[in-house]
């Protein structure tokens, strides 16, 4: 069984009433007032005690509200943290068979017939998460492929130029 929590509003109210009583005692014992008054006759004194009562009680209410909001935010944070851990476990948990050459992923056999299916790693990750891929070239591959493309273009251009010359030579 959980112990009941002490609310700060109640603590603030008790402190304020304690102050009220202590202030009356101080006026009676130290200032030599003729009788012990819980409710002072002086309106300024009554106003001051009432203002302090409301301020301290209000501060207790503010603390209660702040703590409950903070607990709610911390609970939400903990839930998000657990969800993140579960997601990472789903994504990164276990082993994934991947081809050494083409980097395709072996999909689990759902039918139990021993038929293996392989899919691209991009498709596999997209299917098992919300990640989407865009493709491009890194600087090293871009240099490599641009050289290959330039070589192919120059080869095709030289072949295209040599065809008409051969036709001209054959016709003459």
Labels describing this entry:
172 residues; mainly alpha; two-stranded antiparallel sheet
Secondary-structure topology with pairs:
Elements: H1 8-29, H2 43-92, E1 104-107, E2 117-120, H3 121-128, H4 139-171
Antiparallel strand pairs: 1-2
Helix pairs in contact: 1-2
Task: Describe this structure as you would to a colleague.
With 172 residues, this protein is mainly α. It folds into three domains: 8-74; 95-109 and 116-135, no CATH class; 140-172. 66% of the residues lie in helices and 5% in strands. The chain has a two-stranded antiparallel sheet. The protein is elongated and about 125 Å long. The chain starts with 7 loop residues before the first helix and ends with a helix.
Sheet-strand content, in percent, reads: under 5%
Number of domains: 3
Alpha-carbon Rg, integer: 41 Å
Question: What helical percentage do the residues reach?
Answer: 55-70%
Order of helices and strands: HHEEHH
The side-by-side strand order for the widest beta sheet comes to 1-2
Amino-to-carboxy terminus distance: 110 Å
Short synopsis of the structure:
With 172 residues, the chain is mainly alpha-helical. The chain is 66% helix and 5% strand. The chain folds into three domains: 67 residues; 35 residues, no CATH class; 33 residues.
């Amino acid at each position: 069984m959980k112990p009941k929590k002490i609310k700060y509003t109640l603590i603030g109210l008790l402190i304020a009433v304690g102050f009220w009583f202590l202030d009356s005692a101080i006026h009676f014992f130290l200032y030599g007032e003729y009788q012990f008054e819980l409710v002072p006759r002086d309106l300024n004194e009554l106003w001051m005690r009432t203002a302090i009562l409301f301020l301290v009680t209000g501060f207790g209410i503010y603390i209660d509200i702040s703590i409950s909001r903070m607990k709610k935010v911390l609970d939400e944070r903990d839930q998000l943290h657990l969800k993140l851990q579960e997601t990472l476990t789903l994504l990164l948990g276990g082993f994934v068979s991947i081809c050494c050459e083409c980097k395709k992923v072996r999909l689990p056999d759902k039918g139990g017939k021993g038929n293996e299916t392989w899919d691209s790693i991009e498709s596999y990750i997209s299917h098992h998460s919300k990640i989407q891929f865009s493709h491009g070239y890194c600087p090293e591959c871009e240099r490599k492929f641009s050289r290959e493309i330039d070589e192919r273009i120059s080869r095709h251009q030289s072949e295209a130029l040599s065809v008409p010359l051969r036709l001209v030579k054959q016709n003459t």
